Amino acid sequence: MSGALGLTGAGAAGFATAALLLGNYNFPTWSTEDSTEDHCSRPPIGSAPLWKCAERHSNVPSDCDHFFVGKPWPPSAYINNSMDATYRVCHQRAGDDFHLFAIAYNVHYRIPEYAASAITRDPEEEEQDRPSSSLWGRVHMALCGQKVHEAVFDKCDGLETDRWGVTRMSDIWEASGTRCRISNPSFGHLQESYCGDCQALDSDYSGCGTTFNRGHINPNSINSKDADVQDGTFSMLNVAPQDDDFNQCVWQPYECAVERKADEIYKKADKAGSKSKTLYVITGTKLDPKTDWLKGRVAIPGYFWKALCYPGDESKGLRPFGVGFYGPNIDCSTMTSLPLDEFEAFLYDGGEGHLFPGSVCAGKVDNWEGLDEYVAEIAHDCRNEHIQKTCESSWREKRCKYSG
């Protein structure tokens, strides 16, 4: 299959049931009488039609090796996996050919296994404002069913969208040069009916924000120097259900630390006269042995993790380093940071997998010593006023003390 990851795992037994359930996708409806917890966390319903997803994915580009250092597309860390469920995606917007970052997306679980990016942050460049949250309503058009593309073609002057990336109606208007109207059914109804079988939808997360956030995999903030990439991070292919407290109070300061490290790398390399100004970042999810599901459709990861590789430039006195860190995706969580080789042992359950194979980081490199202490030092400054009040409150301190 074009673009599928050549992955090995404990086997594909977990997908035997999926194979029996292939067929038309029916979007679920929910009772308003359910509690928020029951409404948001449910047993899985239906399954992704893997053969249909594979056919659609053949239109998705997967040749974006420059987001990796060394050999691209590291192996899956999902234990029960199938190469037919994980797709390489060079993430794009609407009809653009420009690649924003790389995603290994699992259509069975409807979350990314990981996203890879090459971060070059010039501290002198202007920061962009956070994009509108309305961008979450977009779908990756290439992974939608044919009825969506036929409706756009018929109503919007023959516009072809079967190879498009993340899209909303205004993108279609701009590309077609018209204010074409799709009705009976509407574009939104078509999205819900024919796009959600091979990807998550914004509606999968609606009503669950106080429990599970739309957790960026490739973060918005670290891409704030590039408006196009930052915009592209607001995509349902770049999101997984993330516990609200874990996201805001635990995970976010670590992402802030990585952002500052990328700034530091650029400044040091620039001062040394080196071209090695790029930090390679892979961020991903890891499943628990027993997977819970958001509204029965989207897998809730057991862990979120991030790994860094800086190749360095020994000729200019810039030493390579690598590090990995992870945290359980639960309320009142704590993070664990490890040297890269030890982190990979955690991620691959003691196996031989590497996140940066063929690079200097596949061997012994310096660790980011003192990362946890540094995060504790900068956490307050990394948070906005609202998050400061929430995460630094005596109420949370007591709650987390008794929960642990």
Would you mind describing this structure in some detail?
Residues 6-35 have low confidence and may be disordered. The protein is built from twelve helices and 14 strands. The strands form four sheets. Strands 2-3-4-9-12-13-14 form a seven-stranded antiparallel sheet, sandwiched between helices. Strands 1-10-11 form a three-stranded antiparallel sheet. It has a two-stranded antiparallel sheet with strand order 5-6. The termini are far apart. Helix 4 runs antiparallel to helix 6 and helix 8 (244-272) crosses helix 10. By secondary structure, it is α+β, with helices and mostly antiparallel strands. 29% of the residues lie in helices and 17% in strands. The protein is globular and about 60 Å long.
What is the CA-atom radius of gyration, in angstroms? Answer: 21 Å
Query: What is the molecular shape?
Result: globular
End-to-end separation: 46 Å
Low-pLDDT parts are 6-35
Q: What's the helical proportion of residues?
A: 25-40%
Q: What is the element string, with H for helices and E for strands? A: HHEHEEEEHEHHEHEHEEEEEEHHHH
Strand numbers in spatial order across the main sheet? 2-3-4-9-12-13-14
Largest sheet: 7 strands, antiparallel
The pLDDT mean sits at 90
User: What fraction strand?
Assistant: 15-25%
Question: What is the structural class?
Answer: alpha+beta
Number of strands: 14
